Amino acid sequence: MKEESNNAWLKYDRKTLAAVMDFAEEYRKFISACKTERECVDAVIAKAKALGYKDIASVKKVKAGDKLYAAHMGKTLALFVVGSEPLETGMKILGAHIDSPRMDLKQVPVYEDNEIVLLDTHYYGGIKKYQWVTIPLAIHGVICKKDGTVVKVSVGDEPGDPVFGVSDLLIHLGADQLQKKGNVVIEGEDLNVTFASMPLKGEKKDAVLANVKKLLVKKYKIDLDDFLSAELEVVPAGEARDMGIDSSLLMGYGHDDRCCAYPSAEAIFRITEENTNAPVWKGRTLVCLLVDKEEIGSVGATGMHSKFFENTVAELLDRMGEYSELKVRRAMQNSVMLSSDVSAAFDPNYPSVNEKKNTAFFGKGLVFNKYTGSRGKSGSNDANPEFFAKIRKVFDDANVSFQTAELGKVDQGGGGTIAYIMGNYGMNVIDCGVAVQNMHAPWEVISKADLYEALQGYLAFYREM
Ligand code: MN
Ligand code: MN
């Protein structure tokens, strides 16, 4: 362990400092525009296509040097740079998730109560519900109609857009409420979004709702039944912002886990741009994997537990003329992976939850967690020290700042990621990520230096592992 301050800001020269700030600004724009998993997938595919990536489904033969992507249901995505070595020797995988905690609209969300129309929600992921009231909210997502059309919705983030919100009791009448425990001060069924209040003239009953129906037809050509087949996410409205008088931090929605997903995608984009004289990537195939549903257990067709990635590897081998079940298994087991997800940044306001030797700090680079889990490491992928020894060397040789940490004190809590799921294939995988304050709050905070070190670390992993 280094004794002097190993704060990454101290090592930057003027040029690198500019690069740190530029990368943070790119990322700031990305998370300000992409607030759902679908929006992230769309944006990354758009960039991939511009860089020459092709949809695997549209390609008959795959060879070394090809740049490919595979998306599933618009919510999970794999990017590939096919290397010169056979796929069965394994891949170098960067993985992160692109879903974030939020409130989803229920299937039957709309109702009128005393001339206010509200939307009923069901929260997604672990949230402190009291943090989500009295702040401006936006609604992003899709409404799928019976005729097969998919209506994209995004209200609350464009200039001039209205915003939405969940109300809270005024302090003057909050005496009883404030006696409640934190986890029930605001309860799940209280997270109802204020949607409208203007009645339609001439309507005797539910006149505000009548007006809402009229507006929905006019703006989206939908009726209330169409909410049955919709995926609408209520998220904080507004852009991510620079934070601190030195602008060293970023406050934004969805850092968990887009602050790992974005640099992972950028790493695979940038690695082939570094040396355009050698269009074929020498070595093992590179992969960037962006998955959905991590916040609710990596379940379903678009979560890490899905067979999507394994199936895609089989498709890849098939298009190489190499398919066999054994080769799929070898390709998976021989892979190495950085499973990136955010870590808890030390918070001077709440020092008691951490054990300082094993705590992540802002500005000290990418955080490695040999294990996550809770209590006795339950639910954790406990990475092999042989593997982490190699990573340490790669990072040190590339002068990338990193730190190691646990998520809080033993017995304080804990959490899981996608690492153990990939570990099931027998591959070497370790948890790492960017340190975050206010994790799962509407506005989370990261250090720009850590974001930049993550990118540099991912690039070093692709180059040297
Ligand atoms: Mn999370
Ligand atoms: Mn996460």
Write up what this structure looks like.
By secondary structure, this protein is an alpha/beta fold. The chain folds into 2 domains: 4-100 and 253-464, 3-Layer(aba) Sandwich (Aminopeptidase), CATH 3.40.630; 103-158 and 191-236, Aminopeptidase i, Domain 2, CATH 2.30.250.10. The protein is built from 10 helices and 23 strands. The protein has helices spanning 14-33, 37-50, 182-185, 207-220, 255-273, 308-319, 325-333, 385-397, 419-423, 448-464; strands at residues 54-55, 67-72, 76-81, 91-97, 102-113, 116-124, 137-144, 150-155, 165-166, 192-196, 230-236, 241-243, 249-252, 285-291, 336-340, 343-344, 366-369, 373-374, 402-404, 414-415, 428-433, 435-436, 444-447. The protein has a 9-stranded mixed sheet with strand order 1-2-3-14-4-15-21-17-19, sandwiched between helices. It has a 7-stranded antiparallel sheet with strand order 8-7-11-5-6-10-9. β7 and β8 (150-155) form a beta hairpin. α1 (14-33) crosses α10 and α6 (308-319) packs across α7. The protein starts with 13 loop residues before the first helix and ends with a helix. The mean pLDDT is 95. Bound molecules: manganese (II) ion (MN) (2 copies). One manganese (II) ion binds at residues 97, 256-257, 294, 341-342. The site of one manganese (II) ion has 3 residues, from loops.
